[in-house]
């Protein structure tokens, strides 16, 4: 049996390999999944993606299966209880940002018809295929992530710096940064 050639970053364990093989870089157009990744990416800011991914199921429970309306309506009591939840990243600013971002997400949906239509508009509706030869060729930010980050901030989103936004673009397949010899490209 031969093993699959993957992007080197995902070889830590099966959790990472599953995420890499089945989600990362695959285009996502539905608002609920885009919202889930947006919330998870905001919690990732300053931490490793693995830390967030390992707590993903706990986040799903804590954040009502990432139901944007429910998160937008979180009360102060709910926020405080999340700050005490050991199953998630207990950063009060990020928890509050998740609520703020849910509210801003809904406003974008109202303006554009869907958040997907808004965000995919930054890449003209088509994934950008960078075709890096190695991980060293994968950028942390791009002009597009800079522009999207700036626009999200203007709309009231928090924890959406260009690096976080670029990671979101990778996660949701707006950009394909799988190395050229990664099996997922076949």
Automatic annotation (TrEMBL):
It is an enzyme of class 3 (hydrolase). It comes from Flavobacterium sediminis. It catalyses: Hydrolysis of alkylated DNA, releasing 3-methyladenine. Its EC number is 3.2.2.20. GO terms for biological process: base-excision repair. This is DNA-3-methyladenine glycosylase I. Hydrolysis of the deoxyribose N-glycosidic bond to excise 3-methyladenine from the damaged DNA polymer formed by alkylation lesions. InterPro entries: Adenine_glyco, DNA-3mA_glycosylase, DNA_glycosylase, Tag. The keyword Secreted does not apply. GO terms for molecular function: DNA-3-methyladenine glycosylase activity; metal ion binding. Keywords: DNA damage, DNA repair, Hydrolase, Metal-binding, Zinc. Zn(2+) binds at residues 7, 20, 178, 182.
């Amino acid at each position: 049996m031969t093993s699959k050639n993957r992007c080197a970053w995902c070889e830590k364990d099966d959790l990472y390999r599953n995420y890499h093989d089945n989600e990362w870089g695959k285009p996502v157009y539905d608002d609920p999944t885009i919202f889930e990744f947006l919330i998870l990416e905001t919690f990732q800011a300053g931490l490793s993606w693995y830390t967030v991914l390992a707590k993903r199921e706990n986040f799903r429970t804590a954040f009502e299966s990432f139901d944007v309306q429910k998160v937008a309506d979180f009360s102060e009591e709910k926020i405080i209880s999340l700050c005490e939840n050991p199953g998630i990243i207990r950063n009060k600013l990020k928890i509050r940002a998740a609520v703020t971002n849910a509210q801003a997400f809904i406003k974008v949906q109202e303006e554009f018809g869907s958040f997907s239509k808004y965000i995919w508009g930054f890449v003209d509706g088509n994934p950008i295929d960078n075709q890096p030869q190695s991980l060293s060729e994968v950028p942390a930010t791009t002009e597009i992530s800079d522009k999207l980050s700036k626009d999200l901030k203007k709309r009231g989103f928090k924890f959406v710096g260009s690096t976080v936004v670029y990671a979101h673009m990778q996660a949701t397949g707006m950009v394909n940064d799988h190395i050229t010899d990664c099996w997922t490209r076949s």
